[in-house]
Write a structure and sequence with these properties.
The chain is α+β, with helices and mostly antiparallel strands. The protein contains 11 helices and 12 strands. The strands form 3 sheets. The protein has a 5-stranded antiparallel beta sheet, with helices on both faces. A 5-stranded mixed beta sheet has the order 7-9-10-12-11, covered by helices on one side. Strands 6-8 form a two-stranded antiparallel sheet. The relative contact order is 0.07.
Amino acid sequence: MKVSLKLGLWFFICTVIIEMISMFYLHSNIIHSRVNQELQSLQARGNNHRDVLEISSDLSTLHHIGLMESNTDTEVVITNLKGKIILASGPVDKNIKHILEMPIKQIPRKGRILQPDWMNEKYIATVTEFNGGVGHKGYVYMFKNTNDVQKLISELNQHFILASVLILFFMLFTIFFLSKALTKPLISMIEATKKLSKGNFSVKLPVRSKDELGELSTSIQTLANDLNFLKTERNEFLASVSHELRTPITYIKGYADIAGRPGIDETERAQYLKIIKEEGERLSNLLEELFNLAKLDQNEFTINKARINLSDFLRSIYERILPAFNNKGIKLIFECIDNIYLQLDPVRFEQILTNLLDNALKYSKGDTSTYIKAFKIDGNVHLLIQDEGIGIPKEDLSFIFDRLYRVEKSRSRATGGFGIGLAIVKELVEAQGGQISVISEIGQGTCFTIIFREDTNENSVIS
């Protein structure tokens, strides 16, 4: 069963139950109120006749009262205290006689209702006692045929039935469009999720409201966008990996065929074998970086933190990598204040620094400077790797941490890069609770900033 039908039935059943209860309560109260009004009106007429009889109870007065009631839908019967009929405005049938024979106890001044049963009896009736002096005492009985009351109730029932039918019709009409309005976005979401399950992530869901349905639509749209981005990134990643693998394999196969030809000069053969070895090492390095990246994705690598003195740690790396910078004519400047301690994995941290310094070395020319700086700001340790190299275009800055992203494909290949190193750096920094950012200008150089929280606990141990 479709959700629109289920929702419509649920609303319909609930609304019908509410309507039935409301109509029953309203109907009962209106009928009760209407019957009470008739009884009170009947009692008031009897009280009026009583007041007249207490002023004058002669025959002309009685005749006048009988004449008045004969022209209305009520009947009056006046008796003495012994029950003898003095006046009757109409025929006295057995039903009236039965009511007249009812025992009468003390009657209050406002009168009493003798017969309120309008459903099963022919008459509803009231009685009022009058006292017109000696020999002029008795009772004023007022009667109203219940056919008139039942006719009134029947008309009221017809109105209620008509009102119920109209309410039911408008309710069905409203529920139909309401269920359509509520389920239409749900149906759109169902269709969108079906497309997502089939691998089609280019779905568009309009957000029509800010309620729960709107939030759900936004969540599905966000999921679709993320999946579409991941699909695009995966395809680009696979294409880039295929390209990077294909190139060294092509070199290896081509030069292996040439080197294997008979009669080739040994010097040339040695040169070709050297190229084959270099491409083999390049291929090995690529696979190693891809393997490390896969372990990062699957959280299979471990972080073994220790409390390190940052100044000593950076100085050891500085001294180890300084000859390479000197060989290229680049000044490597080290600036770090003492007594800075961090909780880091020394192996992973060295991998981060080596990668960033290697990039600075590759993309800087001679007679420039590269800086290693470390300082504290508000309890945070800032580590800067800054060079005066060729820089990175602004449009590429937001992508340099993406996998296999290279600003210039030819330049990266010439320097041996695969576009994986910075992706690994970002993963390793964040895995150790740090943040990394970059600023760069073409021709001015690049500055990578890494921020860690300083470890101020002298009793810290390896974790």
